[in-house]
Design a protein that fits this description.
Elements (H helix, E strand, L loop, with lengths): L2 H19 L5 H13 L18 E3 L27 H19 L3 E5 L9 H13 L2 E7 L5 H8 L10 E7 L20 H18 L2 E10 L7 H8 L6 E6 L18 H12 L16 E4 L1 E4 L2 E4 L6 H14 L8 H14 L3 H16 L1 H7 L2 E2 L1 E5 L4 H13 L6 H11 L3 E5 L4 E4 H19 L3
Parallel strand pairs: 1-2, 1-12, 2-3, 3-4, 4-5, 5-6, 6-11
Antiparallel strand pairs: 7-11, 8-9, 8-10, 12-13
The site of iron/sulfur cluster has 15 residues, from α14 and α15.
């Protein structure tokens, strides 16, 4: 082949590759979104719904490292979870099996939680291999931890033995609240405030990792809410809100998991009561109806961040112009993966807006409104530190078990509470992969129905 023809072929294939990587929407993701939308129950098919319009939903691993070395009250893991030994080989092969299935059903680029017992009980190499298995199946993994590990562990996870970077970025969700027992240095926290140095230390480890090795991080903070610590939410947010976490997720406790760890009346906390405490910490009303994920009785999320000492929402769900912006955003950015290298993300955005130029003035109008709401001078002075505020309300195991049985058997449900449980399960946004049956199971059903049997089996197969 003459040199000129070879050059032309190479240029053509480079252009094709560039076109593919900067394509705003992956065809598999588009198909998964259509499928998700079609499967949603009517009561959540509204304009704010992110599932099927923006994302396919969230995924998690199960039965891959059930053991934990803390003793929290409550604990969502079944009694047998702590009888299963940590086994890196089992973890990695099982994750591969589960993620291969979600990749097939949900397409590439979806968020997946590396979750089970305590992830840091895996050695750094096994932990890295588990993340590698998730990345191999094009998931965006986030490791779930109690956060009680040292910088050396984090460094060995992030770097290869020769000191080169194993990951460019890591995502962690760390659980910190005063209902957790066993943390080194503070085994029995007196209150939430006394945990703040530990929250700060956790974030500082990741800041150091970036400084010394250039590994970026995305950090979430989890907090179980019970009548004992609900009043302390504002103080936690006001203080730990600036430590470097990018998300705070508050999870009102439910009667699920190990019943020996249940304390207090968890039913005494209403969704509004908890949300009002989160609002008190953020310093104002939190608009959660602009974007809703799944069922509102399960999830609330407010998107925004700190501008100086104020948390400012990105948009206002009472402003019709922001509601128009939301529709334009769903139309323009449907299924686009912006968690890519900046140049690729910018190219995808440019192509997306080029396809829908009418969205450009809407986006510009929104940015002016946001700058006004935040205060231009304040924005220039302090910048914007994005922090998403979330509430996720798991359900009681007894209700889930009853609703799940009725769903499986196709039975009518007369009880209003169980009917609500079924509606929420049908609209679930957080699933676990069961390739052996070809199903994705809602996390509530996983914990209430599947975990006890699964952990009992694992305790036999992987005894301590
Ligand atoms: S896991 Fe449970 S609480 Fe969470 S979205 Fe699914 S059904 Fe709702």
């Amino acid at each position: 082949m003459p040199a000129l023809t070879r050059l032309a072929h190479r240029a053509a294939s480079a252009i094709r590759a560039l076109e593919r990587v900067t394509r705003p929407q992956d065809p598999e993701v588009a198909a998964a979104l259509r499928q998700r939308w079609a499967e949603l129950p009517p009561h959540v098919k509204h304009r704010s719904q992110t599932i099927g319009q923006r994302i396919a939903g969230c995924e998690g691993t199960h039965g891959v490292f059930p053991k934990c070395d803390f003793a929290c009250t409550p604990c969502y893991h079944s009694r047998d979870a702590n009888k299963v030994r940590i086994d890196g080989e089992h973890t990695v092969s099982e994750i591969g099996r589960q993620m291969e299935f979600t990749r097939r059903v949900r397409g590439p680029g979806q968020y997946a939680q590396l979750i089970g017992g305590e992830v840091s009980l895996l050695g750094p190499d096994d932990h890295a291999a588990a993340l590698g298995a998730m990345l191999e199946h094009e998931r965006k993994p986030m490791s779930f931890t109690h956060g009680d590990f040292d910088y050396d562990y984090l460094r060995r996870l992030a770097l290869n033995p020769d000191g080169s970077r194993r990951f460019d970025a890591l995502a962690f969700a760390a659980h910190f609240d005063s209902l957790m027992f066993g943390r080194r240095g503070i085994p029995l926290p007196a209150d939430e405030r006394s945990l703040n140095p530990f929250r700060a230390h956790f974030c500082a480890m990741f800041a150091r990792l970036r400084r010394e090795h250039g590994v970026k991080s995305h950090l979430a903070h989890n907090y179980t809410v019970t009548p004992r610590n609900v009043a302390q939410i504002p103080e936690v947010l006001r203080t730990a809100g600036r430590f470097g976490f990018h998300m705070f997720s508050f999870q009102p406790a439910a009667f699920v998991g190990n019943e020996r760890r249940w304390k207090d009346d968890y039913g005494a906390l209403s969704a509004d009561a908890v949300w009002s405490r989160i609002e008190a910490g953020a310093g104002g009303r939190l608009p959660y109806r602009l974007f809703q994920t799944g069922d509102e009785r399960c999830n609330r999320a407010a998107y925004g961040g700190w501008v100086g000492s104020r948390w400012v929402a990105l948009a206002d769900d009472r402003d019709p112009r922001d509601l128009r912006m939301r529709s334009a955003l769903f139309g323009t950015l449907r299924g686009i993966d912006l968690a890519a290298p900046p140049a690729v993300a910018a190219a995808r955005l440019t192509r997306a807006f080029a396809r829908r130029p009418s969205s450009v003035p809407i986006a510009l109008g929104w940015s002016v409104r946001f700058a006004r709401r935040a205060g231009l001078r304040e924005l220039i002075r302090h910048g914007f530190a994005p922090v998403t505020l979330v509430m996720h309300r798991f359900m009681d195991a007894a209700d889930v078990g009853e609703a799940w049985d009725a769903m499986e058997n196709g039975d009518e449900i007369s009880d209003e509470r169980i009917r609500e449980t079924r509606e929420r399960l049908e609209a679930c946004s957080y699933h676990f992969s069961h390739p052996e049956t070809g199903r994705l199971i809602p996390a509530c059903a996983q914990h209430a129905v599947f975990d006890p049997e699964e952990n009992a089996r694992l305790a036999r197969e992987l005894p301590l």
